[in-house]
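Lab meeting notes turned into a lecture example. A postdoc, R.K., suggested we walk through two folding results consecutively so the class can see how the record format repeats. The first protein's sequence and structure tokens come next.
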Amino acid sequence: MADLEVLVSTTSAEVPLPAYSHPGDAGADLTTRVAVTLAPGERTTVPTGVRIALPAGYAAFVHPRSGLAARHGITVVNAPGTVDAGYRGEVKVTLLNTDAVETVTFNAGDRIAQLVIQRVERAAFVHVEDLPGSHRGEGGFGSTGVTG
């Protein structure tokens, strides 16, 4: 049973709607609507043929598929890609082949990414001269890792 209704249109009748592979999955599969080949180190933006209308207060996030990442080194360059509630254009996915040797080919209809729908908050950004303290303070990249 779905918790949220999302309106979807496609660029053609052959384009499948996003679909969950298993009960309880967080991400719905997105497919490519065109054949694409990625040489080692190559990236390209792939059309899915899917357009969505999200309700206000929600966003969709495009994530890599773990199997493609593990088996072929395929990832989403701007992971997660953000689809805002007001966007009505075609969802496209920028794929990157991180494998140093193997070329990867996708046929139209192959699963290339997954779409996760989430409720999002809209923040009011308030300027202050100083931020309140915290346990972490200004520690940034690598500040919680092992030293030496």
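The second example is placed directly after the first for contrast:
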Amino acid sequence: MEDGVCPVTNYYQRILLPVSYSLVFLLGLTLNGALLRCVCAPTRHRSGTLIYTTNLAVADLLYVLTLPPLVVSDAMGELWPFGDILCRGVRFLFFVNLHCSMGFLACVSVHRFLGVCFPVAAVRLRCGTLARLASGSVWVLATAELLPTLAFAHTGVINNRTVCFEMTNPGQFKVYFPYGLFLALVGFLIPFLVVITCYCSMVTVLYWRCSSHARTARMRSKSIHKVLAVFLVFVACFVPYHIARTVYLFVRVYLPGNCHLLNVSMIAFKVWKPLVSFNCCANPLFYLLGSDRQRQKLRTWVWKTTRVQPIVCVVHEGDKHRPGG
């Protein structure tokens, strides 16, 4: 496909993105549906952890629901057959729920940080009211900061093919660039700094917390490994994508004539896109498999939904006297 003066290489999109997005859609829909089923069961007390987890699952579930139109479009070589309104809506919801997911992960990290590093203050600060207020703020802020997407994202024609621009059309990249940097700063960098600060502090406190009891030491080691795993998944999913996206924007604005660099930056950006999507599958796995109680609840739910009902044979009274009966 010709993009300005540079022929852009996009053959990989017909396989990589449809396959990866389809996998994310199936896994994300199943896992986040199971998570919502677990956390939305009637309980007497909805803790802050439960509130954040519910909102995170909703954001991830809404995110995966935006993927089917993108699967169809990428499989058709970026041809967009769904119209301008759906184009704007899909792009808007895609980024809103992505930013909400990062925001709720930051809230969860602060929630855990308070419980580990300030256990006394956490009794007062980790209440359900503050969790609801923080969750509402995440939804409102993410929606507000992504509203310009409805204006930037739209359909257009390239090489006689209708496409849905992910960020904006090639002629508006200079206008979009400051807004793209704003999204990278507010939507990613700030939550990332919150997450890295909280998890590094938790690991430090857990590592230096001495205990002679073997069971307590094992629990401490298990907590450290869990914190490190969550942090590494967050870094692997979000950091490369946002770096590649920012570099791609910079090249499009300031080095548009360097076709080799443009292709390399675009391929890097497109290749990292599926990885950021897999985060919505990792989030429910960490919750569902993170504790013995949740693992038992998941096993019980899977057993009930997949169990084969036994076949009951009713023997009539007259059948008892038949030959072979």
